[in-house]
Protein backbone atom coordinates (compact mmCIF):
# COMPACT_ATOMS: atom_id res chain seq x y z
CA UNK A 1 0.00 0.00 0.00
CA UNK A 2 1.22 3.54 -0.77
CA UNK A 3 1.18 6.23 1.91
CA UNK A 4 -1.53 8.93 1.74
CA UNK A 5 -0.09 11.29 -0.88
CA UNK A 6 -0.77 14.62 0.95
CA UNK A 7 -0.82 13.43 4.56
CA UNK A 8 0.30 10.55 6.71
CA UNK A 9 0.00 6.82 6.52
CA UNK A 10 -2.98 4.63 5.78
CA UNK A 11 -6.01 6.70 4.65
CA UNK A 12 -8.27 4.18 6.44
CA UNK A 13 -6.77 5.24 9.79
CA UNK A 14 -7.42 8.97 9.28
CA UNK A 15 -8.67 10.68 12.45
CA UNK A 16 -11.29 13.37 12.93
CA UNK A 17 -10.89 15.85 15.73
CA UNK A 18 -13.58 15.65 18.43
CA UNK A 19 -15.84 18.74 18.47
CA UNK A 20 -14.46 19.62 21.93
CA UNK A 21 -10.96 19.91 20.46
CA UNK A 22 -12.18 21.98 17.52
CA UNK A 23 -13.80 24.30 20.09
CA UNK A 24 -10.62 24.43 22.14
CA UNK A 25 -8.54 25.30 19.06
CA UNK A 26 -10.98 28.07 18.16
CA UNK A 27 -11.18 29.51 21.69
CA UNK A 28 -7.51 29.14 22.69
CA UNK A 29 -5.71 29.73 19.39
CA UNK A 30 -8.19 31.41 17.08
CA UNK A 31 -8.15 28.49 14.64
CA UNK A 32 -10.89 28.64 12.03
CA UNK A 33 -11.53 26.24 9.13
CA UNK A 34 -9.84 27.23 5.86
CA UNK A 35 -11.93 27.97 2.82
CA UNK A 36 -9.21 27.17 0.24
CA UNK A 37 -10.09 24.02 -1.73
CA UNK A 38 -7.50 21.22 -1.51
CA UNK A 39 -6.76 18.83 -4.43
CA UNK A 40 -8.57 15.59 -3.64
CA UNK A 41 -6.23 13.26 -5.50
CA UNK A 42 -2.72 13.49 -6.96
CA UNK A 43 -4.07 13.52 -10.50
CA UNK A 44 -6.04 16.71 -9.71
CA UNK A 45 -2.68 18.50 -9.75
CA UNK A 46 -1.36 20.02 -12.97
CA UNK A 47 1.98 18.32 -13.65
CA UNK A 48 4.46 19.38 -16.35
CA UNK A 49 5.78 16.67 -18.67
CA UNK A 50 9.05 15.02 -17.72
CA UNK A 51 12.00 17.11 -18.85
CA UNK A 52 14.08 13.99 -19.54
CA UNK A 53 14.78 13.11 -23.14
CA UNK A 54 13.67 9.82 -24.66
CA UNK A 55 17.35 8.84 -24.97
CA UNK A 56 17.91 9.29 -21.24
CA UNK A 57 14.71 7.44 -20.29
CA UNK A 58 15.55 4.58 -22.64
CA UNK A 59 19.00 4.29 -21.08
CA UNK A 60 17.42 4.05 -17.59
CA UNK A 61 14.85 1.53 -18.84
CA UNK A 62 17.59 -0.60 -20.32
CA UNK A 63 19.64 -0.51 -17.09
CA UNK A 64 16.60 -1.52 -15.03
CA UNK A 65 14.98 -4.11 -17.23
CA UNK A 66 18.11 -6.15 -17.73
CA UNK A 67 17.23 -6.26 -21.43
CA UNK A 68 18.40 -3.90 -24.14
CA UNK A 69 15.54 -2.20 -26.00
CA UNK A 70 15.83 -2.84 -29.73
CA UNK A 71 15.96 0.15 -32.08
CA UNK A 72 12.34 -0.22 -33.16
CA UNK A 73 11.04 -0.66 -29.62
CA UNK A 74 13.03 2.40 -28.59
CA UNK A 75 11.36 4.44 -31.31
CA UNK A 76 7.95 3.12 -30.32
CA UNK A 77 8.54 4.11 -26.68
CA UNK A 78 9.71 7.55 -27.76
CA UNK A 79 6.59 8.04 -29.89
CA UNK A 80 4.35 6.93 -27.05
CA UNK A 81 6.07 9.36 -24.69
CA UNK A 82 5.63 12.20 -27.18
CA UNK A 83 1.99 11.23 -27.92
CA UNK A 84 1.00 11.81 -24.33
CA UNK A 85 3.08 14.94 -23.95
CA UNK A 86 5.71 12.94 -22.12
CA UNK A 87 3.85 12.84 -18.82
CA UNK A 88 2.33 9.36 -19.10
CA UNK A 89 -0.57 10.26 -16.78
CA UNK A 90 -1.86 6.71 -17.01
CA UNK A 91 0.27 5.18 -14.27
CA UNK A 92 -0.65 1.68 -15.41
CA UNK A 93 1.33 2.06 -18.63
CA UNK A 94 4.09 4.54 -17.96
CA UNK A 95 5.84 3.95 -21.25
CA UNK A 96 9.41 3.15 -20.15
CA UNK A 97 9.04 -0.25 -18.57
CA UNK A 98 7.91 -1.22 -15.09
CA UNK A 99 10.82 0.35 -13.30
CA UNK A 100 11.01 3.76 -14.97
CA UNK A 101 7.91 5.81 -14.23
CA UNK A 102 7.15 9.19 -15.69
CA UNK A 103 3.42 9.19 -14.90
CA UNK A 104 2.08 12.17 -13.00
CA UNK A 105 0.74 10.23 -10.02
CA UNK A 106 4.02 8.38 -9.46
CA UNK A 107 5.98 11.63 -9.65
CA UNK A 108 3.61 13.51 -7.31
CA UNK A 109 3.87 10.68 -4.79
CA UNK A 110 7.65 11.14 -4.76
CA UNK A 111 7.53 14.91 -4.31
CA UNK A 112 9.21 16.02 -1.07
CA UNK A 113 8.74 14.32 2.31
CA UNK A 114 6.31 14.60 5.22
CA UNK A 115 7.12 17.80 7.11
CA UNK A 116 4.14 20.09 7.66
CA UNK A 117 5.40 22.60 5.04
CA UNK A 118 5.79 19.63 2.62
CA UNK A 119 2.17 18.60 3.20
CA UNK A 120 0.86 22.18 2.99
CA UNK A 121 2.67 22.77 -0.31
CA UNK A 122 1.17 19.62 -1.82
CA UNK A 123 -2.26 20.52 -0.45
CA UNK A 124 -1.82 23.84 -2.29
CA UNK A 125 -1.01 21.93 -5.50
CA UNK A 126 2.64 23.12 -5.48
CA UNK A 127 4.81 20.54 -7.23
CA UNK A 128 7.93 22.65 -7.82
CA UNK A 129 10.07 19.84 -6.32
CA UNK A 130 8.65 17.20 -8.66
CA UNK A 131 11.07 14.47 -9.78
CA UNK A 132 11.52 14.09 -13.55
CA UNK A 133 10.98 10.33 -13.20
CA UNK A 134 10.80 7.62 -10.56
CA UNK A 135 13.30 4.78 -10.99
CA UNK A 136 12.97 1.47 -9.14
CA UNK A 137 16.31 -0.34 -9.10
CA UNK A 138 16.16 -3.95 -7.91
CA UNK A 139 19.75 -4.61 -6.82
CA UNK A 140 23.01 -2.99 -5.73
CA UNK A 141 24.33 -3.39 -9.29
CA UNK A 142 21.27 -1.71 -10.76
CA UNK A 143 21.75 1.22 -8.39
CA UNK A 144 25.37 1.47 -9.56
CA UNK A 145 24.28 1.38 -13.20
CA UNK A 146 21.66 4.08 -12.67
CA UNK A 147 24.13 6.35 -10.87
CA UNK A 148 26.61 5.99 -13.73
CA UNK A 149 23.87 6.94 -16.19
CA UNK A 150 22.84 9.90 -14.03
CA UNK A 151 26.42 11.21 -14.16
CA UNK A 152 26.63 10.61 -17.90
CA UNK A 153 23.29 12.31 -18.65
CA UNK A 154 23.72 15.03 -16.01
CA UNK A 155 20.62 14.14 -14.06
CA UNK A 156 20.60 14.35 -10.25
CA UNK A 157 19.54 11.34 -8.17
CA UNK A 158 17.62 11.35 -4.88
CA UNK A 159 17.45 8.08 -2.92
CA UNK A 160 13.85 7.61 -1.75
CA UNK A 161 13.22 5.19 1.13
CA UNK A 162 9.90 5.60 2.94
CA UNK A 163 9.63 9.26 1.95
CA UNK A 164 9.19 10.33 5.61
CA UNK A 165 11.93 12.98 5.69
CA UNK A 166 10.89 16.08 7.61
CA UNK A 167 13.89 18.26 6.77
CA UNK A 168 13.65 18.71 3.00
CA UNK A 169 15.82 15.63 2.41
CA UNK A 170 13.94 14.69 -0.76
CA UNK A 171 13.87 18.12 -2.40
CA UNK A 172 17.26 18.69 -4.03
CA UNK A 173 18.48 22.01 -5.36
CA UNK A 174 20.37 23.01 -8.51
CA UNK A 175 19.54 23.45 -12.17
CA UNK A 176 19.44 19.83 -13.22
CA UNK A 177 16.33 17.66 -13.32
CA UNK A 178 16.38 14.83 -10.82
CA UNK A 179 15.12 11.27 -10.58
CA UNK A 180 13.77 9.71 -7.39
CA UNK A 181 15.47 6.35 -6.78
CA UNK A 182 12.71 4.49 -5.00
CA UNK A 183 14.47 1.64 -3.18
CA UNK A 184 11.41 -0.48 -2.32
CA UNK A 185 12.64 -3.36 -4.53
CA UNK A 186 15.74 -3.77 -2.33
CA UNK A 187 13.69 -5.91 0.03
CA UNK A 188 15.14 -9.42 0.22
CA UNK A 189 14.73 -11.27 3.57
CA UNK A 190 17.38 -10.60 6.25
CA UNK A 191 20.49 -12.78 6.34
CA UNK A 192 20.78 -13.67 10.02
CA UNK A 193 24.02 -14.77 11.72
CA UNK A 194 22.80 -16.23 15.02
CA UNK A 195 26.30 -16.82 16.34
CA UNK A 196 27.32 -13.18 15.98
CA UNK A 197 23.74 -11.91 16.52
CA UNK A 198 23.79 -9.79 13.38
CA UNK A 199 21.49 -9.42 10.38
CA UNK A 200 22.11 -8.01 6.93
CA UNK A 201 19.02 -6.01 5.94
CA UNK A 202 18.39 -4.59 2.46
CA UNK A 203 18.03 -0.81 2.43
CA UNK A 204 14.54 -0.69 0.94
CA UNK A 205 12.92 -2.93 3.55
CA UNK A 206 10.29 -1.06 5.54
CA UNK A 207 10.67 -1.25 9.31
CA UNK A 208 7.53 -3.34 10.11
CA UNK A 209 8.54 -5.98 7.58
CA UNK A 210 12.14 -6.05 8.83
CA UNK A 211 10.92 -6.35 12.42
CA UNK A 212 8.38 -9.09 11.57
CA UNK A 213 11.01 -11.15 9.72
CA UNK A 214 13.41 -10.85 12.65
CA UNK A 215 10.62 -11.66 15.14
CA UNK A 216 9.87 -14.90 13.24
CA UNK A 217 13.44 -15.96 14.06
CA UNK A 218 13.18 -14.85 17.71
CA UNK A 219 14.98 -11.50 17.36
CA UNK A 220 14.23 -7.78 17.37
CA UNK A 221 16.03 -4.75 16.04
CA UNK A 222 14.52 -2.59 18.81
CA UNK A 223 14.13 0.44 16.52
CA UNK A 224 10.66 2.01 16.84
CA UNK A 225 10.61 5.65 15.71
CA UNK A 226 7.22 7.30 15.35
CA UNK A 227 7.64 6.89 11.56
CA UNK A 228 8.20 3.12 12.09
CA UNK A 229 5.24 2.01 9.96
CA UNK A 230 6.60 3.65 6.76
CA UNK A 231 10.32 4.35 7.02
CA UNK A 232 13.03 2.05 5.66
CA UNK A 233 16.27 0.56 6.92
CA UNK A 234 18.33 2.65 4.46
CA UNK A 235 16.51 5.83 5.50
CA UNK A 236 17.25 5.12 9.20
CA UNK A 237 20.96 4.80 8.46
CA UNK A 238 21.05 7.76 6.07
CA UNK A 239 19.34 10.08 8.58
CA UNK A 240 20.78 8.67 11.88
CA UNK A 241 17.34 7.87 13.16
CA UNK A 242 16.45 7.38 16.83
CA UNK A 243 13.56 5.24 18.07
CA UNK A 244 11.23 5.52 21.05
CA UNK A 245 13.07 2.68 22.83
CA UNK A 246 16.48 4.31 22.40
CA UNK A 247 17.18 4.27 26.16
CA UNK A 248 17.33 0.48 25.97
CA UNK A 249 18.34 -0.37 22.39
CA UNK A 250 20.30 2.74 21.43
CA UNK A 251 19.97 4.93 18.37
CA UNK A 252 19.93 3.34 14.93
CA UNK A 253 23.54 4.37 14.27
CA UNK A 254 24.61 2.44 17.39
CA UNK A 255 23.01 -0.69 15.91
CA UNK A 256 24.87 -0.48 12.60
CA UNK A 257 27.91 -2.70 12.13
CA UNK A 258 28.37 -2.45 8.37
CA UNK A 259 27.01 -0.77 5.25
CA UNK A 260 27.13 -1.45 1.52
CA UNK A 261 27.04 1.69 -0.54
CA UNK A 262 26.67 2.41 -4.26
CA UNK A 263 28.29 5.63 -5.49
CA UNK A 264 28.77 7.08 -8.97
CA UNK A 265 32.44 6.04 -8.56
CA UNK A 266 31.62 2.41 -7.69
CA UNK A 267 30.56 0.33 -4.72
CA UNK A 268 32.18 0.16 -1.30
CA UNK A 269 31.66 -1.60 1.97
CA UNK A 270 32.26 -0.06 5.39
CA UNK A 271 32.65 -2.17 8.56
CA UNK A 272 34.11 -5.68 8.67
CA UNK A 273 34.23 -6.26 12.45
CA UNK A 274 32.23 -4.93 15.40
CA UNK A 275 35.05 -2.54 16.32
CA UNK A 276 38.31 -1.75 14.60
CA UNK A 277 41.41 0.36 15.18
CA UNK A 278 42.17 0.41 11.47
CA UNK A 279 41.88 4.13 10.83
CA UNK A 280 38.84 6.36 11.21
CA UNK A 281 35.52 4.51 11.22
CA UNK A 282 34.21 4.86 7.66
CA UNK A 283 30.77 3.69 8.79
CA UNK A 284 30.40 7.03 10.52
CA UNK A 285 30.97 8.78 7.21
CA UNK A 286 27.98 7.02 5.68
CA UNK A 287 25.67 7.24 8.70
CA UNK A 288 23.93 10.60 8.56
CA UNK A 289 25.21 11.36 5.03
CA UNK A 290 21.57 11.65 3.84
CA UNK A 291 22.20 10.27 0.37
CA UNK A 292 24.81 12.93 -0.46
CA UNK A 293 27.75 10.49 -0.51
CA UNK A 294 26.11 7.36 -1.92
CA UNK A 295 23.09 5.11 -1.90
CA UNK A 296 23.09 2.66 1.00
CA UNK A 297 21.97 -0.66 -0.47
CA UNK A 298 22.23 -2.87 2.63
CA UNK A 299 22.95 -2.48 6.34
CA UNK A 300 24.40 -5.01 8.78
CA UNK A 301 22.84 -4.50 12.18
CA UNK A 302 23.19 -5.96 15.65
CA UNK A 303 20.04 -7.84 16.72
CA UNK A 304 18.73 -8.69 20.18
CA UNK A 305 16.58 -11.58 21.45
CA UNK A 306 12.86 -10.82 21.19
CA UNK A 307 11.71 -9.62 24.63
CA UNK A 308 9.32 -11.95 26.41
CA UNK A 309 8.03 -9.17 28.64
CA UNK A 310 7.14 -5.58 27.80
CA UNK A 311 5.69 -3.27 30.39
CA UNK A 312 5.15 0.50 30.30
CA UNK A 313 4.05 2.63 33.23
CA UNK A 314 3.31 6.26 34.09
CA UNK A 315 5.12 8.52 36.56
CA UNK A 316 4.06 12.00 37.56
CA UNK A 317 6.46 14.82 38.51
CA UNK A 318 5.72 18.24 39.94
CA UNK A 319 7.62 20.02 37.18
CA UNK A 320 9.59 19.43 33.96
CA UNK A 321 12.75 20.34 35.83
CA UNK A 322 12.09 17.70 38.51
CA UNK A 323 11.20 15.08 35.89
CA UNK A 324 14.30 15.85 33.82
CA UNK A 325 16.49 15.49 36.91
CA UNK A 326 14.92 12.07 37.58
CA UNK A 327 15.57 10.93 33.98
CA UNK A 328 19.15 12.18 34.22
CA UNK A 329 19.59 10.14 37.40
CA UNK A 330 18.54 6.96 35.59
CA UNK A 331 20.67 7.75 32.54
CA UNK A 332 23.75 8.41 34.65
CA UNK A 333 23.46 5.99 37.54
CA UNK A 334 20.98 3.40 36.27
CA UNK A 335 19.09 1.22 36.14
CA UNK A 336 18.35 2.00 32.49
CA UNK A 337 14.73 1.42 31.39
CA UNK A 338 14.07 0.64 27.70
CA UNK A 339 11.71 3.60 27.14
CA UNK A 340 12.05 6.94 28.93
CA UNK A 341 9.84 9.83 27.93
CA UNK A 342 8.88 12.96 29.88
CA UNK A 343 6.26 15.48 28.72
CA UNK A 344 6.50 19.06 29.94
CA UNK A 345 3.58 20.73 31.72
CA UNK A 346 1.93 21.98 28.52
CA UNK A 347 2.20 18.64 26.70
CA UNK A 348 0.88 16.85 29.77
CA UNK A 349 -2.03 19.29 30.09
CA UNK A 350 -2.91 19.21 26.42
CA UNK A 351 -2.69 15.47 26.51
CA UNK A 352 -0.21 14.53 23.77
CA UNK A 353 0.95 11.94 26.23
CA UNK A 354 -2.69 10.82 26.23
CA UNK A 355 -4.39 12.27 23.12
CA UNK A 356 -7.97 11.20 23.84
CA UNK A 357 -7.94 13.41 26.95
CA UNK A 358 -7.02 16.59 25.11
CA UNK A 359 -8.26 19.57 27.05
CA UNK A 360 -9.52 17.55 30.02
CA UNK A 361 -9.13 18.90 33.54
CA UNK A 362 -8.57 15.45 35.04
CA UNK A 363 -5.90 15.36 37.80
CA UNK A 364 -3.56 13.34 35.54
CA UNK A 365 -3.18 16.41 33.29
CA UNK A 366 -1.45 18.30 36.13
CA UNK A 367 2.36 18.45 36.52
CA UNK A 368 4.43 16.41 34.11
CA UNK A 369 3.78 12.86 32.94
CA UNK A 370 6.63 10.44 32.22
CA UNK A 371 6.33 7.07 30.47
CA UNK A 372 8.85 4.50 31.63
CA UNK A 373 9.03 1.14 29.86
CA UNK A 374 10.95 -2.09 30.30
CA UNK A 375 11.51 -4.82 27.69
CA UNK A 376 13.49 -8.02 28.17
CA UNK A 377 13.29 -11.27 30.05
CA UNK A 378 10.79 -11.52 32.90
CA UNK A 379 13.62 -11.50 35.45
CA UNK A 380 15.53 -8.62 33.89
CA UNK A 381 12.45 -6.37 33.52
CA UNK A 382 11.36 -7.10 37.09
CA UNK A 383 14.80 -6.27 38.45
CA UNK A 384 15.21 -3.03 36.49
CA UNK A 385 11.66 -2.00 37.25
CA UNK A 386 12.01 -2.45 40.95
CA UNK A 387 15.33 -0.58 41.10
CA UNK A 388 14.04 2.22 38.84
CA UNK A 389 10.93 2.63 41.02
CA UNK A 390 13.11 3.29 44.03
CA UNK A 391 15.19 5.81 42.08
CA UNK A 392 12.16 7.60 40.59
CA UNK A 393 10.40 7.77 43.95
CA UNK A 394 13.52 9.15 45.59
CA UNK A 395 13.66 11.77 42.81
CA UNK A 396 10.15 12.97 43.71
CA UNK A 397 8.11 10.95 41.21
CA UNK A 398 4.67 9.51 41.94
CA UNK A 399 3.78 6.17 40.41
CA UNK A 400 0.68 6.56 38.15
CA UNK A 401 0.13 2.90 37.34
CA UNK A 402 0.47 1.00 34.07
CA UNK A 403 -2.50 2.58 32.30
CA UNK A 404 -0.75 5.80 31.09
CA UNK A 405 2.21 3.75 29.84
CA UNK A 406 0.13 1.08 28.11
CA UNK A 407 -2.06 3.77 26.58
CA UNK A 408 1.02 5.52 25.21
CA UNK A 409 2.29 2.21 23.78
CA UNK A 410 -1.02 1.51 22.00
CA UNK A 411 -1.20 4.97 20.44
CA UNK A 412 2.52 5.48 19.84
CA UNK A 413 2.18 5.70 16.02
CA UNK A 414 -1.04 7.76 15.96
CA UNK A 415 0.24 11.35 16.44
CA UNK A 416 0.97 11.91 12.70
CA UNK A 417 -2.71 11.14 11.98
CA UNK A 418 -3.63 13.77 14.56
CA UNK A 419 -1.47 16.28 12.66
CA UNK A 420 -3.48 15.63 9.47
CA UNK A 421 -6.70 16.19 11.40
CA UNK A 422 -5.32 19.46 12.80
CA UNK A 423 -4.35 20.66 9.31
CA UNK A 424 -7.81 19.68 8.05
CA UNK A 425 -9.34 21.76 10.85
CA UNK A 426 -7.32 24.83 9.77
CA UNK A 427 -4.62 24.62 12.46
CA UNK A 428 -0.87 24.55 11.93
CA UNK A 429 1.03 21.74 13.71
CA UNK A 430 4.74 21.01 13.37
CA UNK A 431 7.56 19.48 15.37
CA UNK A 432 11.27 20.15 15.73
CA UNK A 433 14.00 18.62 17.83
CA UNK A 434 17.52 19.11 19.16
CA UNK A 435 19.90 17.72 21.79
CA UNK A 436 22.42 19.14 24.24
CA UNK A 437 24.46 18.33 27.32
CA UNK A 438 22.41 18.16 30.52
CA UNK A 439 23.85 21.44 31.83
CA UNK A 440 22.57 23.26 28.71
CA UNK A 441 19.10 21.67 28.69
CA UNK A 442 17.27 24.29 30.84
CA UNK A 443 18.48 27.24 28.71
CA UNK A 444 17.81 25.31 25.49
CA UNK A 445 14.27 24.49 26.59
CA UNK A 446 13.50 28.09 27.55
CA UNK A 447 15.25 29.60 24.54
CA UNK A 448 13.44 27.51 21.90
CA UNK A 449 10.06 27.91 23.59
CA UNK A 450 10.50 31.66 23.79
CA UNK A 451 11.68 31.94 20.18
CA UNK A 452 8.66 30.02 18.88
CA UNK A 453 6.16 31.73 21.15
CA UNK A 454 7.43 35.28 20.56
CA UNK A 455 7.72 34.95 16.77
CA UNK A 456 4.31 33.42 16.25
CA UNK A 457 2.65 35.77 18.76
CA UNK A 458 4.14 38.81 17.02
CA UNK A 459 2.72 37.44 13.76
CA UNK A 460 -0.74 37.36 15.35
CA UNK A 461 -1.05 33.62 16.01
CA UNK A 462 -0.18 32.87 19.63
CA UNK A 463 0.91 29.21 19.65
CA UNK A 464 0.84 26.31 22.05
CA UNK A 465 4.42 25.08 22.42
CA UNK A 466 4.85 21.67 23.97
CA UNK A 467 8.00 19.68 24.63
CA UNK A 468 9.15 16.24 25.67
CA UNK A 469 12.39 14.43 26.36
CA UNK A 470 12.46 10.99 24.76
CA UNK A 471 16.13 10.17 24.16
CA UNK A 472 18.47 10.31 27.14
CA UNK A 473 22.19 9.77 27.52
CA UNK A 474 24.64 9.79 30.38
CA UNK A 475 25.72 13.28 29.33
CA UNK A 476 22.65 14.88 27.81
CA UNK A 477 19.25 14.50 26.18
CA UNK A 478 17.14 15.37 23.20
CA UNK A 479 14.29 17.93 23.39
CA UNK A 480 11.36 17.46 21.00
CA UNK A 481 8.99 20.42 20.51
CA UNK A 482 5.47 20.39 19.07
CA UNK A 483 3.92 23.69 17.96
CA UNK A 484 0.21 24.22 17.30
CA UNK A 485 -1.21 27.55 16.18
CA UNK A 486 -3.58 29.14 13.70
CA UNK A 487 -2.23 28.95 10.16
CA UNK A 488 -1.96 32.54 9.02
CA UNK A 489 -2.74 33.68 5.48
CA UNK A 490 0.12 31.76 3.82
CA UNK A 491 0.85 28.97 6.33
CA UNK A 492 4.31 28.01 5.02
CA UNK A 493 5.56 31.61 4.83
CA UNK A 494 3.96 32.25 8.23
CA UNK A 495 5.94 29.38 9.83
CA UNK A 496 9.33 30.15 8.30
CA UNK A 497 10.36 33.02 10.66
CA UNK A 498 9.38 30.92 13.70
CA UNK A 499 11.41 27.94 12.50
CA UNK A 500 14.32 30.29 11.75
CA UNK A 501 14.09 31.79 15.25
CA UNK A 502 13.99 28.31 16.82
CA UNK A 503 17.09 27.25 14.87
CA UNK A 504 18.92 30.36 16.03
CA UNK A 505 17.87 29.71 19.62
CA UNK A 506 19.14 26.12 19.37
CA UNK A 507 22.62 27.17 18.26
CA UNK A 508 22.63 30.04 20.76
CA UNK A 509 21.94 27.68 23.67
CA UNK A 510 24.61 25.17 22.60
CA UNK A 511 22.26 22.58 21.08
CA UNK A 512 22.71 20.64 17.87
CA UNK A 513 20.53 21.56 14.90
CA UNK A 514 19.18 18.01 14.88
CA UNK A 515 19.25 15.00 17.18
CA UNK A 516 17.48 12.61 14.77
CA UNK A 517 15.59 14.28 11.92
CA UNK A 518 18.79 15.21 10.11
CA UNK A 519 19.91 18.18 8.05
CA UNK A 520 18.32 17.97 4.60
CA UNK A 521 17.94 21.37 2.97
CA UNK A 522 16.00 22.91 5.87
CA UNK A 523 18.86 22.77 8.41
CA UNK A 524 21.79 23.01 6.02
CA UNK A 525 22.78 26.60 6.79
CA UNK A 526 22.68 26.02 10.56
CA UNK A 527 24.55 22.72 10.15
CA UNK A 528 27.28 24.62 8.27
CA UNK A 529 27.70 26.86 11.32
CA UNK A 530 27.68 23.88 13.66
CA UNK A 531 30.23 21.90 11.61
CA UNK A 532 32.44 24.93 10.93
CA UNK A 533 34.11 26.02 7.72
CA UNK A 534 36.84 23.37 7.90
CA UNK A 535 34.36 20.64 8.74
CA UNK A 536 32.24 21.50 5.69
CA UNK A 537 35.36 21.65 3.51
CA UNK A 538 36.38 18.18 4.70
CA UNK A 539 32.91 16.78 3.96
CA UNK A 540 32.88 18.48 0.56
CA UNK A 541 36.18 16.73 -0.29
CA UNK A 542 34.63 13.40 0.65
CA UNK A 543 31.68 14.18 -1.59
CA UNK A 544 33.99 15.17 -4.44
CA UNK A 545 35.76 11.80 -4.16
CA UNK A 546 32.57 9.72 -4.12
CA UNK A 547 30.33 11.87 -6.34
CA UNK A 548 32.57 14.07 -8.51
CA UNK A 549 29.70 15.28 -10.70
CA UNK A 550 27.61 16.21 -7.66
CA UNK A 551 24.58 14.27 -8.85
CA UNK A 552 23.59 12.81 -5.47
CA UNK A 553 21.16 14.90 -3.42
CA UNK A 554 22.55 18.32 -4.42
CA UNK A 555 21.86 20.92 -1.74
CA UNK A 556 20.98 18.28 0.87
CA UNK A 557 23.42 18.24 3.82
CA UNK A 558 25.94 20.35 1.84
CA UNK A 559 25.39 23.35 -0.45
CA UNK A 560 24.62 22.48 -4.07
CA UNK A 561 27.64 23.03 -6.30
CA UNK A 562 27.56 26.30 -8.22
CA UNK A 563 26.72 25.67 -11.89
CA UNK A 564 29.98 25.28 -13.80
CA UNK A 565 30.55 27.19 -17.03
CA UNK A 566 29.62 25.20 -20.14
CA UNK A 567 32.48 22.84 -21.04
CA UNK A 568 34.78 23.68 -23.93
CA UNK A 569 34.23 21.52 -27.03
CA UNK A 570 35.94 18.16 -26.72
CA UNK A 571 36.32 18.28 -22.89
CA UNK A 572 35.46 15.27 -20.69
CA UNK A 573 31.82 14.49 -19.87
CA UNK A 574 32.76 14.47 -16.16
CA UNK A 575 33.19 18.22 -15.83
CA UNK A 576 29.82 19.82 -16.66
CA UNK A 577 27.35 20.31 -13.85
CA UNK A 578 24.50 21.66 -15.98
CA UNK A 579 22.14 19.39 -17.88
CA UNK A 580 22.28 18.87 -21.58
CA UNK A 581 19.67 21.00 -23.32
CA UNK A 582 17.56 17.89 -23.95
CA UNK A 583 17.25 17.31 -20.19
CA UNK A 584 16.80 20.87 -18.98
CA UNK A 585 13.35 21.60 -17.56
C1 LIG B 1 5.40 11.60 11.46
C2 LIG B 1 6.86 11.40 11.50
C3 LIG B 1 7.46 10.87 12.63
C4 LIG B 1 8.85 10.70 12.66
N1 LIG B 1 9.40 10.15 13.78
C5 LIG B 1 10.73 9.96 13.83
C6 LIG B 1 11.32 9.38 14.99
O1 LIG B 1 10.65 9.03 15.96
N2 LIG B 1 12.65 9.19 14.98
C7 LIG B 1 13.42 9.54 13.90
O2 LIG B 1 14.62 9.33 13.94
N3 LIG B 1 12.89 10.12 12.81
C8 LIG B 1 11.58 10.32 12.73
N4 LIG B 1 11.02 10.87 11.62
C9 LIG B 1 11.89 11.27 10.50
C10 LIG B 1 12.07 10.15 9.45
O3 LIG B 1 11.11 9.16 9.58
C11 LIG B 1 13.43 9.54 9.59
O4 LIG B 1 14.39 10.52 9.18
C12 LIG B 1 13.69 8.27 8.79
O5 LIG B 1 14.99 7.83 9.10
C13 LIG B 1 13.58 8.45 7.30
O6 LIG B 1 13.50 7.16 6.69
P1 LIG B 1 12.88 6.98 5.24
O7 LIG B 1 13.08 5.58 4.83
O8 LIG B 1 11.50 7.48 5.20
O9 LIG B 1 13.84 7.92 4.39
P2 LIG B 1 13.45 9.05 3.36
O10 LIG B 1 12.57 10.05 3.97
O11 LIG B 1 13.00 8.42 2.10
O12 LIG B 1 14.90 9.69 3.14
C14 LIG B 1 15.53 10.45 4.15
C15 LIG B 1 16.86 10.99 3.59
O13 LIG B 1 17.77 9.91 3.43
C16 LIG B 1 18.07 9.68 2.06
N5 LIG B 1 17.98 8.23 1.86
C17 LIG B 1 16.90 7.43 2.01
N6 LIG B 1 17.24 6.15 1.81
C18 LIG B 1 18.56 6.14 1.52
C19 LIG B 1 19.51 5.13 1.20
N7 LIG B 1 19.17 3.86 1.14
N8 LIG B 1 20.78 5.50 0.95
C20 LIG B 1 21.17 6.80 1.02
N9 LIG B 1 20.32 7.79 1.31
C21 LIG B 1 19.04 7.47 1.56
C22 LIG B 1 17.04 10.47 1.26
O14 LIG B 1 17.52 10.91 0.01
C23 LIG B 1 16.72 11.61 2.20
O15 LIG B 1 17.68 12.64 2.08
C24 LIG B 1 9.64 11.06 11.54
C25 LIG B 1 9.02 11.58 10.40
C26 LIG B 1 7.65 11.74 10.38
C27 LIG B 1 7.01 12.28 9.14
From TrEMBL:
Q: Which residue windows does the record flag with biased composition (Low complexity)?
A: 567-585
Q: Which UniProt keywords apply?
A: FAD, Flavoprotein
Highest taxon above the source species = Bacteria
- The UniProt annotation puts the region (Disordered) at 66-97, 557-585
Stretches of Basic and acidic residues bias are at 72-92
Q: Does the keyword Acetylation apply?
A: no
The answer to keyword rRNA-binding applying to this record is no
Q: InterPro entries attached here? A: Alkyl-DHAP_Synthase, FAD-bd_oxidored_4_C, FAD-bd_PCMH, FAD-bd_PCMH-like_sf, FAD-bd_PCMH_sub2, FAD-linked_Oxase-like_C, Oxid_FAD_bind_N, Vanillyl_alc_oxidase_C-sub2
Where does the FAD-binding PCMH-type domain start and stop, copy by copy?
127-306
Record-stated family:
Belongs to the FAD-binding oxidoreductase/transferase type 4 family.
Name-wise, this protein is FAD-binding oxidoreductase
Give the source species. Streptomyces lichenis
